[in-house]
C-alpha cells in the first residue's frame, strides 16, 4: 500500500478513537436535560473549535471565502445543516441504545451510504465497476452492511432477553426508538461525507492562499459545521422551551456543578472536533480516493465505541452468545474498513 495512504489511514484511526470517545464526558454531566448538554457540546464542536482551528492553521480563511463562488459555500453550508438533523438523531440513538449499539447502527449506515454517495453523484461509481479497486470497494461496503445487520440483530436479542436492571447504565434504553433514530442518522448523516467532497474547491483555494495542504479542510469544516449548528440550536432551544429546561444553562445546585457541566460538554465537543480535524488531515493524503476515508473513519469509530460500551457495562447481564455476536459483528465491520482502505491501491 502507498505509504502516503497508510499515513492518512493512521491519522484517521486516531480521529476514530476521538470520535468513539467523545460521548464519555456526558456521563459526568449532572441534572441537565439532554437538549441542554447537547447544545453546549454543539457550540464547542461546531463553532468554537472550528473557528479556533481556522485562526491558528488557516488564517487566510476569510480570503478563501471571498474567492469561492457563493453557490459552493451555500451548498456545503446546506449539507452541513442536513447533517445537523443526522447528528441530532445520532444523539438520540446514543440516548436510547447506548454507546455500543448507537454507534454501530448509526455509523454503520453512514459508512455504507456515505462511502457510495459521493462517487455516485460525481460519476466515479459507474467507472469503478470496471476496476479491481472499485469491486473491492463495493465488497467492503457489502461486508459492512453484513456487520451492521448482525449488530442490529444482537441489539434485538439484548432488548428481548436482558432485564431492565441490566440496562440501568443506559438511562432510557428503548430499542425501537433507537433504531428509528439510527436509520435517520444513516440517511441524513451521510451528508457530511458529501459536504467534504463538495468542499474540495474550498480546500484547493485554501492551499492557493497559503494554507498547508495538511490543514486545507479547516475552512470546509467551518462552513459545513456552521450549518450544522443552525439546525441544532433551533431544535435544542425549541426542546428546551417545551421541557422547561432553558434554565439549565444558568442554574444548578451550586456553581461547581454548573462549571463542570460546561467543562464536560466542551471536552466532548473538543473530542468530537478532533475526529474531523484528523480526518481532514488523513483525507488530504488519499489522492483521488478521498471518499474511502469516510468508511475507514466510521468503521474504526464503531470499534472504539463498542469497546467503551463494554467498559461502561452496557452489556452487563448479556449471554455468552450475545457477546460472541457482538464481537463477530465488530470484527466484520473492522474488516470492511480494511477492504475499503485497500481498494485505493488495488
UniProtKB/TrEMBL annotation:
Which GO cellular component terms are attached?
A: membrane
Source organism of this protein record: Carboxylicivirga sediminis
Which superkingdom, per the lineage?
Answer: Bacteria
Transmembrane ranges, per UniProt, are 6-26, 38-58, 73-90, 97-117, 137-157, 178-200, 220-238, 259-279, 291-311, 323-344
Protein's recorded name: Rhamnose/proton symporter RhaT
Against InterPro entries, the record matches this protein to: L-rhamnose-proton_sym_RhaT
Question: Which Gene Ontology terms cover its molecular function?
Answer: rhamnose transmembrane transporter activity; symporter activity
Q: What does the UniProt keyword field contain?
A: Cell inner membrane, Cell membrane, Membrane, Sugar transport, Symport, Transmembrane, Transmembrane helix, Transport
Keyword set includes Transmembrane: yes
Statement: the UniProt record of this protein carries the keyword DNA repair: no
Q: Which Pfam families match?
A: RhaT (PF06379)
Amino acid at each position: 500500500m502507498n505509504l502516503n495512504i497508510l499515513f492518512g489511514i493512521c491519522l484517521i484511526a486516531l480521529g476514530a478513537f476521538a470520535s468513539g470517545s467523545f460521548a464519555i464526558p456526558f456521563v459526568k454531566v449532572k441534572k441537565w436535560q439532554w437538549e441542554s448538554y447537547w447544545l453546549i457540546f454543539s457550540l464547542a464542536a461546531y463553532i468554537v473549535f472550528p473557528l479556533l482551528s481556522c485562526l491558528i492553521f488557516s488564517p487566510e480563511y476569510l480570503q478563501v471565502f471571498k474567492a469561492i463562488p457563493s453557490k459552493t459555500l451555500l451548498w456545503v453550508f446546506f449539507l452541513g445543516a442536513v447533517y445537523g438533523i443526522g447528528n441530532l438523531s445520532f444523539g438520540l440513538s446514543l440516548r436510547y441504545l447506548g454507546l455500543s449499539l448507537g454507534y454501530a447502527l448509526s455509523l454503520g449506515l453512514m459508512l455504507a451510504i456515505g462511502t457510495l454517495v459521493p462517487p455516485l453523484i460525481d460519476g466515479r461509481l459507474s467507472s469503478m465497476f470496471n476496476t479491481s479497486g472499485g469491486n473491492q470497494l463495493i465488497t467492503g461496503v457489502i461486508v459492512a452492511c453484513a456487520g451492521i445487520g448482525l449488530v442490529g440483530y444482537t441489539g434485538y436479542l439484548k432488548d428481548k432477553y436482558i432485564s431492565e436492571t441490566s440496562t440501568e447504565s443506559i438511562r432510557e434504553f428503548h430499542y425501537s426508538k433507537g433504531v428509528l433514530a439510527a436509520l435517520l442518522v444513516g440517511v441524513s448523516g451521510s451528508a457530511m461525507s458529501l459536504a467534504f467532497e463538495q468542499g474540495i474547491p474550498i480546500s484547493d483555494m485554501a492551499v492557493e492562499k497559503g494554507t498547508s495542504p495538511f490543514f486545507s479542510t479547516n475552512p470546509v469544516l467551518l462552513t459545513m459545521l456552521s450549518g450544522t449548528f443552525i439546525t441544532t440550536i433551533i431544535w435544542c432551544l425549541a426542546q428546551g422551551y417545551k421541557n422547561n429546561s432553558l434554565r439549565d444553562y444558568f442554574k444548578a445546585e451550586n456553581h461547581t456543578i454548573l462549571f463542570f457541566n460546561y467543562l464536560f460538554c466542551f471536552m466532548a465537543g473538543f473530542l468530537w472536533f478532533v475526529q474531523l480535524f484528523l480526518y481532514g488531515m488523513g483525507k488530504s493524503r488519499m489522492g483521488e480516493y478521498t471518499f474511502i476515508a469516510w468508511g475507514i473513519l466510521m468503521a474504526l469509530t464503531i470499534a472504539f465505541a463498542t469497546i467503551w460500551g463494554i467498559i461502561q457495562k452496557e452489556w452487563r447481564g448479556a449471554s455468552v452468545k450475545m457477546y460472541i455476536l457482538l464481537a463477530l459483528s465488530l470484527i466484520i465491520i473492522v474488516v470492511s474498513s480494511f477492504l475499503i482502505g485497500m481498494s485505493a491501491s488495488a
